[in-house]
Amino acid sequence: MNPETNGHNIVEKVGAKFIRYALIIGIAILFVLFANLVAQAVSPEPKYEDFCPNTMRPAKIVETQESCVADGGIWDGNYCDMYRACSAAYQSAQEGYDNNTSTIFLGMSVLLLVLGTVFVNRNNLYSSIFVLSGVILLLVTMMRFWSAMHNILQLILVGISLLALLYLAQKRLKE
Questions:
Q1: Which pLDDT value is given to residue 121?
Q2: How far is Cα 110 from Cα 124, in angstroms, rounded to an integer?
Q3: CA dihedral 169, 145, 26, 44 (to 10 degrees)
Q4: Would you say residue 14 has pLDDT above 80?
């Protein structure tokens, strides 16, 4: 066996594995970006300026409760809060958006994990792509929306994720 040829084969194998893993990771990242675009198309994120435009603030200094209320603000002891009402409306819209987006992300990640199981015996490359994409999307969902989720939803999300990954691990690692 020629040492130069053997070394060349090793480099080719390492290069091919690197390309394979780079493609799997790249496609998984694109799936996450795709999920973000789907969420934006289905439920656009509310903009603070739409609820609290800069034109709301009066050009003058408001020092009394009467002038604050007359300008549309809420008197809060020592100052006039011109944004409390619109901030509450924005916060409510943001919570609705977070719920919609987390539901979309969760649904897409479950779909990707299911596809990963479907392809587990048919096409190892697709199975790897779908599973990694689903796992990354689950992590993004948990990190991005964890504080907005109720405890029971957190429990369900982690429980489903754990069961799905245990099932996939059992199917993939039978060897």
A1: 72
A2: 18
A3: 140
A4: no
What are the residue ranges spanned by the domains of the chain? 3-45+94-172
- Tokens linked to 132: 């990694």
Gap between the Cα atoms of 30 and 24, Å rounded: 10
**Residue matched to tokens 């509310």:** 46
* Higher-pLDDT residue of 2, 145: 145
CA-nearest of 99, 105, 103, 119 to 31 is: 105
Residue type, 62: V
Following DSSP, what letter does each residue of 34-94 receive, concatenated? HHHHHHHHHSPPP-HHHHS-GGGS-SSPP-SHHHHHHTT-EEETTEEESSHHHHHHHHHHH
Distances (CA, A) of 8 to 1, 2, 13, 103: 12, 10, 9, 49
- Name the most confidently modeled range: 1-10, 37-46, 120-129: 37-46
Contact 154/46 with Cβ under 8 angstroms?
Answer: no
Find where tokens 């587990």 sit: 120
Vertex 104 angle, CA 164 and 122, to 5°: 45
